[in-house]
Amino acid sequence: MLDEELLNLTQVRAFLAVVDQGGFREAAAALGCAQPTVSQLVRKLEEALGDLLIVRGHAQCLPTKSGSQFLPFARALLRVDRRGRAAVKAGQLVVGASSNIGIYLLPVLMKKLSDACGQPIELKIGSNPEIADQLESGEIDVGLMEWWDERPGFEATPWNRQSLVVIVPRTHPWARRKMVSIEELVGKPLVGGEPGSGTGTLLRKALGASSSQLRTTYQLGSTDAVKAAVKAGLGISLVMESSVREEVRHRSLVALELEDVDLAKELQSIIPANLPSSSPSRAFVSALGELSKGAL
Questions:
Q1: Where's the HTH lysR-type domain (predicted)?
Q2: Is the pLDDT of residue 88 over 90?
Q3: Is residue 194 located within the same domain as residue 219?
Q4: Which of 213, 232, 234, 275 could form a disulfide with 279 if both were Cys (CB 3.0 to 4.6 A apart)?
């Protein structure tokens, strides 16, 4: 609604200054204004939100429960404000990619993608959930993900298909094999990777009822950590084939294909819906689809 009151970013900035500096006097000094001005800005923000955000104390000022809940959104608002100003000034496209995509697939394409879009590209790498949240908050223009939750207001376009392989150390009994059945994974010590990437969901779906017998011994935060754990003999894992090409080439890990099952990820490029056809985000998505053919 046009008559709905929007939050004032100057008030939000004053609230963050009080939290970060620990008091109104300190916040005023950091912002370069008078203490009564900071107090008035925070009070107006509390009135707009309908709740107390700061507990006023003589020694220190702390956020209330509501203030703590609002805090990450306040920081995101200022990040988006800075991003918007920088985008208009510099004409830069910000792309967020899940770790595996950003580390193992995008680097070889970045120069050609930038040329195709006609402007510089800033790449931000994070977990799949982090990229989804940054896309929704407007911190990035395009999200490149291994998994998408179909939240409304966005368009998802498949741009690459990545097969999953089983990796084992060179000393493993399977190391001389080229293939393994998916049923053989049941009961074996598995090393899990980045949460929210969709690998576990694909594996459980393929195994059906047998998935309840999967044994994950370690849950690690990145594919690099997974590879190190597998090399150390802590278990086996299921990863994107592109993420272990170097290790397979140097024979520090063995990658096995899965028999009788085509387990793969459809990588998605996500942009806000209803962007004009001439937008840099659409140009990026189109170029990515073309450039990734045969290059990855």
A1: 7-64
A2: no
A3: yes
A4: 275
What is the percent of the chain with per-residue pLDDT over 90, rounded to a whole number? 60
Q: 12, exposed or middle or buried, with CB in 10 Å at 0-12, 13-18, 19+?
A: buried
Cα distances from 136 to residues 13, 36, 139, 197, 231, in angstroms, run: 21, 35, 8, 18, 37
Q: For residue 198, which amino acid is it?
A: G
Instruction: Using a cut of 0.70, tell me whether the model's pTM lies above it.
Output: yes
What pairs with residue 236 in β-bridges? 190
Q: What are phi and psi of 59, to 5 degrees?
A: -85, -40
Could you give the C-alpha distances from 50 to 9, 16, 46, 214, 228, in angstroms and in order?
A: 16, 17, 6, 49, 50
CA end-to-end distance (rounded Å), the chain? 46
Q: Would you say the C-alpha torsion 242, 112, 292, 281 has a positive or negative sign?
A: positive
User: For 269, phi and psi rounded to 5 degrees?
Assistant: -105, 130
User: Are 17 and 139 members of one domain?
Assistant: no
Q: Is residue 96 domain-shared with residue 152, that is, in the same domain? A: yes
CA distance 141 to 257: 35
Report helix, strand or coil for 234.
coil
DSSP H helical ranges for the chain? 9-21, 24-31, 35-49, 65-90, 99-104, 110-117, 128-137, 199-207, 223-231, 245-249, 280-291
Q: Are residues 21 and 68 in the same domain?
A: yes
Say how many residues make up the chain: 296
216 in the same domain as 274: no
